[in-house]
Amino acid sequence: MSSTLFRTKKVEQSILDTEEPEHALKKSLSALDLTVFGVGVIIGTGIFVLTGTVAKNNAGPATALAFVAAGVACALAALCYAEFASTVPVAGSAYTFSYASLGELPAWIIGWDLVLEFALGTAVVAVGWSGYIQSLMDNAGWSMPAALGSREGADVFGFDILAAALVLVLTCILVIGMKLSARITSVVVAIKVTVVLVVIIAGAFLIKGDNYDPFIPKEQPVEAGASLDSPLIQLMFGWAPSNFGVMGIFTAASVVFFAFIGFDVVATAAEETKNPQRDMPRGILGSLVICTTLYVLVSIVVTGMQHYSELSVDAPLADAFKATGHPWYAGFISFGAAVGLTTVCMILLLGQTRVFFAMSRDGLLPRFFSRVHPRFKTPHRPTILLGVIIAVLAGFTPLTELAALVNIGTLFAFVVVAIGVIILRKSRPDLPRSFRTPWVPVIPILSVCASLWLMINLPAETWVRFGIWMAAGFLVYFLYGRTHSRLARREAGEEQPSA
């Protein structure tokens, strides 16, 4: 039985399966499109919100170093993703990579994990977008009814209609086609990058050197309930990460890591890329470099404009400009954040539908969802299903505590992909690799260590919820996926491989 659980799907077969007419996605994306997708999904709530949180509670002006640390951890993973995406240019990202290197059960686990990660990420971002829109409406003198705007404001019934509507509109765009999605994303990304650059340039003239003293605070007054100590670390090692000093920087890095979530989504579009061997590494690494640079510059500017102990937690950039006597920028930043979050939501939804599509094409989920639209050549069935579910989730469910599951899900995928690179180098050294991760196995091992370090900095409650979701995944696999797997059917002679 163990041999069947860890059977691998040959890379050649994965590529052949993408050529089946009823299950083939349209190739329309370039390296620029992929880079725009990456920047579009990475720059979101992280840059507009998390900067103030970690600066005030953990790292002070050294928040820039926390972004660098998180960026380095992502860069290690990105190098592994780049090799896999160019070698196995098939939809599904880490799921497909795992199937080719680790086996069917690990692939199922990572696919199940990604479904949760992208679903919660989309819902969380949609709710955040709704909050920005409602704030802009309030500034204009308009207000949403409590029952349709904020769940917390409703006495009996509450449904965030704006968040749900955003998800449904983006679902329609994704059904129509990837090229349309890329064009819309390009326009929106241009707007929000412009907003970020305005913040950096305008804020640079308002910096006061005294605000950088001390650059690495030895201790800060942490607000009640704001501690980010991990009970898991105390349980495992007998000590907890510090909320100040040098250790505060690493604690902050595990938090601001959320701001980088999304570059791995680029890999899910490999099958829809014109020249994946060349363009996937460019898109993944290029978007990560651009966003890390912007994050570092923004954190340096905002902590220089206002002392870290006085920064707002909810809207640090906007409030920093208000504190320096420039309230006009606050509305401008809120507008940029609201516009920018639309692309984050859309690309996370895109990533989830491609993983779901790949799993159904392999038979681990019902193959009904693996047929593409006859005209648009998009996986319309899983897109519509998941879009509706996430719209309901965003409308009804308070997601604040569940947001940490997005972090742990992403980090878990990073670990699996890094291990997969090492294994595939050993098992299939003959595969053509247009991009090769340097210094294997050193880089993948460092990626695993960095990801695990960030994972153990997450609260124990997050690990419990993650474990429950994984247990449910095992149940679905053994009740359905294992017996319906196309790979299993081919080995039993019940289905002929694609030719």
From TrEMBL:
Transmembrane annotation, as ranges: 31-50, 62-84, 105-129, 156-177, 184-207, 244-263, 284-308, 328-351, 383-399, 405-425, 437-456, 462-480
InterPro entries: AA/rel_permease1
Keywords: Membrane, Transmembrane, Transmembrane helix, Transport
Gene Ontology CC terms: membrane
Record keyword Transmembrane present: yes
Superkingdom as given in the UniProt entry: Bacteria
GO molecular function: amino acid transmembrane transporter activity
Lipid bilayer topology: Multi-pass membrane protein
Record carries keyword Transport: yes
UniProt-annotated location(s): Membrane
A Pfam family: AA_permease_2
Main localization (coarse): membrane
The protein, known as: APA family basic amino acid/polyamine antiporter
Lineage: Bacteria, Bacillati, Actinomycetota, Actinomycetes, Kitasatosporales
